[in-house]
Amino acid sequence: MGIEGNETADELADAGANEGRMNDDRSAEPTISGIGTTTRALADAATSDWWSRCLTGLSASYRKWGLGYSIAEPPELRLPRTLLHRLLAARTAHGDFAQYHRRFGHTDAELNCLCGYAKTPEHLVFCEISQRKFHAWPAKPERPPSRPKEGRRYMSAILAHPKLFEDFLTVTQYFAINARAQQTRDLTSPGGPPTELRLTETKPPFFNCCIAIGRALYIISARIIQRHRPNVRTGKLKCSLYAHTPSKDSSYTQRSATLKKDLEESEQGRSSKWREED
């Protein structure tokens, strides 16, 4: 048996709620907007469940970034193809990385970055090349990443937002600088610089800087020697920028002078012959 006052209040509340309603009241029926909202929520839940099941079958290199899935157009498709390649390679670890080259037996690949450390996706934010431009990083943290957890957190942020990834590469020029260094190594000699001029990841950064300077001086001296190599035919130094071999020009001038002299002698002979006949 309830309290009499409460029962009376409940009866009055029910009467007020039902007062004025008709049997064919449409206010309780679903609306088009409500149906759409419910449908989208169910679709998102189904997509999330499907992605959770598929995520376990992906590689650990991809799962560690914590990337989501959406049925909408991925924003990374708006990137230039060169940047899209870099983004997908960093997400999947299938690219110019030391572990990838070892896995597929690429014996002629360069496994280390220009700074001397092994190429990994996370090294992109730890490298000296990138950290020199830390003041201009997009969405930069409070300090440059120095621990694996900090580097992975920032890498996850820029990999999830392709525009940030594009801005990061534009600011740091990481891949462009490494590509130029690789081209320089390929041009100087097939085997690259001597072993003692290669960077080592077991030495401190200052030692690596000294080694990098020595390697740069080696490359410059090799180019100067090739450019100023003595010419065997003329015995003179040839420089592709400031001089050229004058063998063709001198021979052409000599032939022209000889021909001119022969013509003058021929004209003089004719003139003397005509004077004798007269």
From TrEMBL:
<feature type="compositionally biased region" description="Basic and acidic residues">
    <location>
        <begin position="259"/>
        <end position="278"/>
    </location>
</feature>
<protein>
    <recommendedName>
        <fullName>RNase H type-1 domain-containing protein</fullName>
    </recommendedName>
</protein>
<feature type="region of interest" description="Disordered">
    <location>
        <begin position="246"/>
        <end position="278"/>
    </location>
</feature>
<feature type="compositionally biased region" description="Polar residues">
    <location>
        <begin position="248"/>
        <end position="257"/>
    </location>
</feature>
